[in-house]
Amino acid sequence: MSLAEGNTRAFVQALNKLPRPKTTPSGFPNCWHFTIKTLPMNPPDDLDFLVHLPSGQSIEEGRTKIHTLPSPVAKAKVITPLLLEAFVASLATGAHGETIPGVSAFVPWEWSTRDKKLAKALEKRLKELGVRNELCTVHVATERDEILASDVWQSWKSSLLGQMTGDPVMQAMMSQDNAAPDVRPPGTVIGSEAADWKEHKKSCRNVNEGSAGKNNLDSFEYYRSVARTNPKAQELGRSLNLTIGTHGETLYHPIRRLVVTGNDTDENLELFFGPNWKQLAGPVHKDARMEVLLQPSPGETGYELYSRWDKGTPTWSPRPATNDELVQMEKATRMLDGFNAMRP
Q1: Which CATH architecture describes the domain 8-169?
Q2: What is the pTM of this model?
Q3: What is the DSSP track for 70-121?
Q4: Which residues, in sequence order, are CB contacts of 29 under 8 Å at separation 6+?
Q5: 9-14: average pLDDT
Q6: H helix or E strand, kind and range, residue 61
């Protein structure tokens, strides 16, 4: 089960039923630290990186935008379902979702993050979703914990890069020169997001201050509260084998489904994500377009990375690349040619 195949409520119910031991099966304290890291990809994406500091075990969840979100509240909306998935679905499964014999899922005795404001926002979000009380406390980690987690991240990232070295498509999508740093300063924006940042902050501020108008909702809230009750949006969702509002709270899955079926028009994006869709959903859409246009073949590492999102897709018919996308694809192709030239 993943958040692409079930809803948040089901994950909360599953999480609340899991045991909460003080120690892990190996006898270490059952304490986990999570931090947001950026994948060394072009374009870059963020993930929730959870580390069991006593053992160095890690869980990686998500491929989405987190660092560039405007507030701890907005980040908490994205991170919370990733935390749920980490312990409900990922802890006791292998890299491709297979069950590991003799390994059972459990929840942490305590979890922590370095960002105090984010910790408070996550506590509030966990309570709103009905997570059991003892898991609604998110501790503020020490600087030493963050450094230890970063050391584990560096090892994991090095391993990932090593695995991708033999995958030409993924190699073409990776750019060390353009890869984002592991941590971006608060408020940092990249690429096309910069032009919309002023209006983006204004829109999100309206939501946080309790504005009731649906035109002021950000893409997350619109998709979850408005699109799911809109008959036209529901009809579009059914044609895509997509049930509106049951895919967690990241935007990537419904946007990718629109892209791979060729339905990612401005009209449909607004139907799903509201009149302000370009501010939050826009950058995700841009990334999804490039990833689909550079889609790796079955059996390649990159194919496994994307395959779960496309389960149930009725057709593969993405729109042709635009002129700007052709330029980006040409750059990726040159990188691919250079890689192939170095191969024996």
Answers
A1: 2-Layer Sandwich (3.30)
A2: 0.52
A3: SSHHHHHHHHHHHHHHIIIIITTB-TTSPBPTT------SEEEES-HHHHHH
A4: 22, 23, 54, 109
A5: 85
A6: strand 57-64
